[in-house]
Structures are given as C-alpha cells and as structure tokens.
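dumping this here before i forget
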Amino acid sequence: MRYPSDTNRCAWCGGTLLQRNLGRQRRTCSQLCRQALWRFAVPHAPTPTNLKPRRFAYADPPYPGKAHYYPESSEVDHEALIAGMNDNFPDGWALSTSAGAMRQILPLCPADIRVCAWIKAARPHPTAPIISSWEPLIIRTGTHNKRVDRAATKDSLIAQGRYRAHPNAMIGMKPPQFAVWLFQLLGMATGDEFHDLFPGSGAITRAWHLYTTGKSNPPSPPIPLNLHARKKK
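structure:
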C-alpha cells in the first residue's frame, strides 16, 4: 500500500513527481491521476457536538468462504473479531459481509446491531441462478454515542462497486460513497479516532482522512489492531 508523504509525491498514486511538474506546482504526476483524484469526491465531516473524541472501527474482512480470493487464503474468526470490536470500540463499529453469510454472522452479533444494505452493480455470472446485487453492512452504535447535528442517514445506499482508478484497487474494495455513508451511519465527526481493521486497498482510510481534513494525501496508515484471529486453511 502506497501513500504519498511529501510534496515530491503524487497525491493520488504516490509516484515521484517530475521536475517539470514541481515547477508548475502540480499535485499529481499525470492527467489520469489528476482526474481519478478529482472523482474520489468526499464531503467535509460535520462539526462534533461533544468535546471528547470517540473511537470507531470498521472491519471488511474476507467474507466467510471467500478467503481463497486473497493472498492469505485463511478464513477469519468472525466470532473473535466481533467480540474484539464490542470490547474495544463501545462508541461504534461496522462490519461488512455477504448476504449469503448472514445466517452465520448474525448469531455472533449483539442484539442492538442494525443491518443496512449497500446496493451495488451486479456482476454477470454464467452459472448462478440468482445474481447478488447487494451487501449487508452491520453497524452498532454505543448507547452513549451522541450523534452530530445533521440530517438523518438512510439505511441503504445505491452506489457502484470497486473504484478501479484507485492505485491499490482490489477485490472487495469499497467506493468513496460507501465510506461517507459508513461515517454518517456511525455519526463520526472531525476529531474522532477511526480504525480500519482490514485496510486492504486503503480507500476507506484515504476517504476518512479527506473527510476530516480536506487533504487528499493521507499519511501512512497505522498498523491495524489485532482484534481477530485467523483460522487455518
């Protein structure tokens, strides 16, 4: 995962800017990067109504039975993952999973969760009798989590899938619209602490940095907290 850390790096792909680009005070190394950065649009976060920063987490692990799509090829212990988020993030957390895994995942969750729906573009499948076009997002907000003053957020989102122009685009990555929807569902605001437990492409971390600071070039993300155990292959 690459993130630019100085003015000599492209604000999108992290590549080195040429001297002619530096002379023109450009932030990106090419027209493609400039357009991709502009399309990765994220609004500004609301002003917090509480003085104490809160801690939130988002987990987007390999979905049950889908670990073979990733280099680790090992299943995630969702029971340990959910228990760890309950203990370490009482202000709120969110978990992405698949519609087919709901029967397995929901019994592991506390009673006060809510299931939201991300309706995405359906991918053609030559043999599947039913094509999946949505993914559940399980959220939990703490009882003492005072939400920021803003309009109500819907529990469903219609947005396209993978943002293929992202320099680290990969299977399962979420678009910027999904990231903003996630932040709003949890009531997150500037000054809050956010942990992306499975950073993957880094798109959610980039969106959070842009959402709270307005800067498009986030620093290197912290090492994710080890709240989950991986099962054997």
